[in-house]
Amino acid sequence: MSSKNNTTISKTITSLRFPLIIAVIFIHTQLRDTVINGTAITDGFRFLIHDVLYHVITDEISRIAVPLFFFISGFLFFYKTIIFTKIEYVKKLKKRFRTLLFPYVFWNIVVLLLFLLTQIFLSSMLSGRNKLIADYNFIDWINIFWNHNNGNPICYQLWFIRDLIIVVLFTPFIYNFIKYTKIYGIILLGLLWIFNIWFDVVSFSLTSFFFFSFGAWFSINKRDFTVDFSSLRWISVIMYLGLLILNIILWFNDITKYFFLNNLSIIIGMIAIISWTAYEVNENRITPNYFLAASSFFVYAYHGMPIALLIKFYMKFTATFISEWTMVLGYILIPFIIAYIGVGIYAILHKFFPSFTALITGGR
Description:
It is a single chain. The protein has helices at residues 3-27, 48-61, 65-77, 86-121, 138-143, 159-169, 171-194, 206-220, 225-230, 233-252, 259-282, 290-302, 304-318, 324-352, 354-360; strands spanning 35-36, 39-40. Strand 1 (35-36) and strand 2 form a beta hairpin. The longest helix has 36 residues, at 86-121. The chain is globular. It is built from 15 helices and 2 strands. The protein has a two-stranded antiparallel sheet with strand order 1-2. By secondary structure, the protein is mainly α.
């Protein structure tokens, strides 16, 4: 790849990082699930506009973010790797200890402490559905870092990091799989993912293995995905919009048997986002914001507990005059408020405690 292509790839990835984190925050902005003292705030209410908006943004568009992060991770893992030897594998594992494992352990411990403080001082805001930390047994303490609730660690959004760590451990297998099966192996994994054919084991997600391998395929074969996807720029947008409309119609009519169309739209949407971002970068209409990109991991890691608390406070405050528009307003504003606060905290930490900040964000 030429230096110009390397620059385009770098700027494209940097430009995408923060917007994709905003998408992840939208996924976790679930006002309808708010439960305080065992009571669901939205029980008995219908919010058609909110529900449609939520489905389009959260269940359709934002779902592209996590697969795209796995794709980028796979590409970067093998980027500029000439031969993937045992020595190279160990070298990369040591680096991932700093960039993945340490932040993973740190943020799960932080959330554990926040949960404890919440249970002590804000017990009236709890849903009543979670076990008290004071009652944890040995298995509960182990599951903090693995499967605390519904297949997630206690810092639930870090399931991505957990699954990424597992995939990284399997990179020798992935490397040889790609070398021997070529593009056909990627197509096979893609079909398995689209039709949801996989075993159900926590941390061994097909999403992580397929999209990581998809991104790795480009690096291993010394290909530039921004160039390869450029010819699909228009067709991918047209196909994605068509699938988006179809998926909305199916959702509105409560038809779930065509779930594979949603998975297909994620792959096509990912190609559309990459190709258009790269195009805008090359046309100098998008300039990467390196500070926001650097803050992305911090915002991602910190946002889980704050967004849950902000949603509870907002829903409790608006409960007496809850309406379609309070729901829509909360859904739109809360993710940006959380992101804005996160960037502000990151800026302060980065200024006064740069080494510590680098440590808890994996040196990003």
